[in-house]
Structure formats: C-alpha cells, structure tokens
C-alpha cells in the first residue's frame, strides 16, 4: 500500500488588511492521515494553545491572540481553499522489502505498478531510492548490499521508462533500521528500500 507521510500538523496563516489594520489568522488543520498536533500562538499580550483540528485564533492590532474557536472544516476550506490548492504534494513514501539478497519479495514486486503510476501522475523528476539491510553481517557487507538493493530498484524503474536522471540512490546499510535489533539479528522488515517520490 502506498502511503503519504506528512507533517504532524499543518498551519494555515492569513494576513489581511483593512480599516481595522492587519490581522493574522492561525488555524490548525490535520495532516493527510488525520493526525493533529498542537501549537501555541503567542502575542505581546498573551498566548493560546490550539490542539484540535480546524480551530483557530486571530491576532489583531492589540497583539493578543483571541480565544481559539472552532472554524469547521467547510469554513476553513472555503476561506483558504485557493491557497491550499497551490500547495505542493507531500512526498510519497513506499517501502519495498527484500529476501536476503537483492530480490524483491513477491508482495513488493506487486507494488511496482503503483509506484510507476504515482511517478507518472506527479510527473516526478525527484525520486530518492534508499537501501537498507538487517544487522546480519559486517558493516562493509551491509553497506554494499544496501547499495545494490537501491540500485536494483532504480534499474527496475528505469526499465519501465522512468528517466535515470530523475532517480537518486543512497544506502544506509544496517543503520536506520525500521525495527531496532542487536547486531547479527535477522529481521526481514529491515531488508528494504524506501522509495520517496516528490
């Protein structure tokens, strides 16, 4: 399954001018997965915390944030829709898993058409392919294996028509495991390549 990882919170700011002077509106919106963080909005005269989706505050001439109010999703989309529509897409992250070598698992092979479709839909020319291993073997062996895994995925994408110049590869070896383990532990979920499509 393809997944977009986004920020834990997304802020919407609006500065407006008029007879009353400048106003800044701060609204907390959920990320694409529905997660919401929190934010403290501080002015010269005080501070408020916003920790629920589609709640906002205004800071006006008095430089004090107003008490947070529920603006609602529909109102936020109506007010900020034009600004939100020009935001770049968040990077798409896909994890492909491997056996003990450079062969993709069957489940990961089935994800390749979805990856290619996402690259085409986004017209992406900025794709990062990051190789990883589990902790079996030496540091040098794992760095080489993770490099070869990343290269394998790059070659598969290029064979399907993705320009090689659009793909960067890097490798982390056994560093940055998905599942932390001691050295010399076989962990299939760490035998992976992360594909980041911007």
Structure, explained:
- With 198 residues, this protein is α+β, with helices and mostly antiparallel strands.
- The protein folds into two domains: 6-85, no CATH class; 92-197, OmpA-like domain (60s Ribosomal Protein L30, Chain: A, 2-Layer Sandwich).
- The protein is built from four helices and eleven strands, in the order βββββββαβααβαββ.
- The chain has a five-stranded mixed β-sheet with strand order 1-8-11-9-10.
- Helix 4 links the parallel strand 9 and strand 10.
- It is elongated.
- The protein starts with a strand and ends with a strand.
Give the biggest beta sheet: 5 strands, mixed
CATH architecture grouping of the largest domain = 2-Layer Sandwich
State the strand order across the main sheet. Answer: 1-8-11-9-10
In the CATH hierarchy, what is the class of the largest domain? Alpha Beta
Span from first to last CA?
17 Å
Radius of gyration: 23 Å
How many domain modules? Answer: 2
Count the beta strands. 11
Given the helix and strand composition, which structural class is it? Answer: alpha+beta
Count of helical stretches: 4
The CATH topology of the largest domain is 60s Ribosomal Protein L30, Chain: A
The amount of helix comes to: 10-25%
What is the CATH superfamily of the largest domain?
OmpA-like domain
Question: What percentage of the residues does DSSP assign to strands (E)?
Answer: 25-35%
Q: How confident is the prediction overall: mean pLDDT?
A: 89
User: Regions with pLDDT < 50 over 5+ consecutive residues?
Assistant: 1-10
Overall geometry: elongated
Order of helices and strands: EEEEEEEHEHHEHEE
